[in-house]
Amino acid sequence: MEALYLTIPMAMCIAAFFLYVFITAFRKGQFEDIESPKYRMFFEEEYPTESKQTKTNSPDGPTSKS
After folding, report:
1. What pLDDT, in 10s, does the model give residues 7-25?
2. Polar residues composition bias: which ranges (predicted)?
3. Cβ distance 52 to 61 under 8 Å?
4. pLDDT by residue (tens digit) across 36-62?
């Protein structure tokens, strides 16, 4: 019985923390669009290329990565 005096308030604090985290995520728009992320893998994306300035400033010149 004495353990309940400790575990119930701890459970309430943990529940309040997760409720706070959920509300802040909801307000920031985390859950606005739940459909489009699963379709992103079907679209081709161009990866960013290195700028010419970083390639010319390297002392070894452009290197090839395998």
Report:
1. 999 999 999 999 999 999 9
2. 50-66
3. no
4. 878 888 887 777 777 655 555 556 656
- Residues 28 and 21 sit within 8 Å (Cβ to Cβ): no
Angle at 31 between CA 29 and CA 37, to 5 degrees: 110
For residue 61 the two structure tokens come to 């010149």
Task: Give kind and range of the element (H or E) at residue 13.
Answer: helix 4-27
Retrieve residue 44's tokens.
Answer: 């081709």
Can you tell me which residue has the tokens 């575990």?
7
The model scores a pTM over 0.70? no
Token couple for 52? 């010419």
Two structure tokens written together for 9:
């308030």
Burial of residue 19, with CB atoms counted within 10 A of its CB: 0-12 exposed, 13-18 middle, 19 or more buried: exposed
